[in-house]
Amino acid sequence: xxxxxxxxxxxxxxxxxxxxxxxxxxxxxxxxxxxxxxxxxxxxxxxxxxxxxxxxxxxxxxxxxxxxxxxxxxxxxxxxxxxxxxxxxxxxxxxxxxxxxxxxxxxxxxxxxxxxxxxxxxxxxxxxxxxxxxxxxxxxxxxxxxxxxxxxxxxxxxxxxxxxxxxxxxxxxxxxxxxxxxxxxxxxxxxxxxxxxxxxxxxxxxxxxxxxxxxxxxxxxxxxxxxxxxxxxxxxxxxxxxxxxxxxxxxxxxxxxxxxxxxxx
Length: 265
Ligand SMILES: NC(=O)C1=CN([C@@H]2O[C@H](COP(=O)(O)OP(=O)(O)OC[C@H]3O[C@@H](n4cnc5c(N)ncnc54)[C@H](OP(=O)(O)O)[C@@H]3O)[C@@H](O)[C@H]2O)C=CC1
Ligand SMILES: O=C(O)[C@@H]1CCC=N1
Known about the structure:
Layout: E1 5-8, H1 12-23, E2 32-35, H2 39-49, E3 52-53, H3 57-63, E4 66-69, H4 76-83, E5 92-95, H5 102-109, E6 114-119, E7 129-135, H6 141-152, E8 155-159, H7 165-192, H8 197-217, H9 222-229, H10 236-245, H11 248-264
Parallel strand pairs: 1-2, 1-4, 2-3, 4-5, 5-6, 7-8
Antiparallel strand pairs: 6-7
Bound molecules: NADPH dihydro-nicotinamide-adenine-dinucleotide phosphate and (2S)-3,4-dihydro-2H-pyrrole-2-carboxylic acid.
NADPH dihydro-nicotinamide-adenine-dinucleotide phosphate (NDP) binds near residues 35, 72, 119, 120 and 173.
């Protein structure tokens, strides 16, 4: 079935997804539609990706059969009320809002709607995204595979139980921010020792990328991969000991806990 893909809200996450589906060739930009509160962002995204834009949300709903609700969760009730009557029966609505449950949205829609709850991250923009997805009971198995293919066009996909969506949001949706902090800190340290910033970012970022690939592509536990870097009596174990002393691991676990606490509010 031919699908027009719509985005209500063209903020950071929607822009990353639009970039992902257009650059991967998954869809033609002519089949992508978007609306946003401020016109300036719409003009920018239209210029960058040559997609169609509307000044109102209802037109996106009426013209599309995959609809991303890419606004923040506090805006969901108003947006759902605006588009409710314009949604086509064959449409699949994709929620990406952290903390927004399928049940909450179903309550606002007040009608039978096919819903996919997806938790992507911004690396979708460069084809290396991670998206966790769950569905409501109205989405067929065939449609689930169609949604998988969409998200796989710009990264990896896991179907998970909706009860795990908050932790998927913290560990998949938010974690790129933690990793950027790590890369920035590594690069700052390199600059402190006289390395030019462009060299520093490249060396730090590629080391993170390669390490992630080792975890994904070797059968080894991350602890074993760490051990392989630490030569006996060498330099790395000095750094590892320092990180342990400074509570590196518990700082990460606490960061995830803070994320989960916020999602409960
Ligand atoms: N950023 C990320 O890495 C991730 C975000 N998400 C989820 O994506 C959603 C959006 O987050 P993010 O992109 O970061 O936030 P942004 O603030 O960047 O984007 C939200 C967009 O929604 C627009 N908007 C607000 N109200 C309306 C409305 N009534 N009608 C149409 N558009 C509206 C805003 O427009 P304007 O700015 O013009 O007011 C803005 O462009 C959130 O629910 C978040 O949980 C999920 C995974 C990762
Ligand atoms: O910061 C946020 O609320 C969103 C959810 C996951 C990433 N960004």
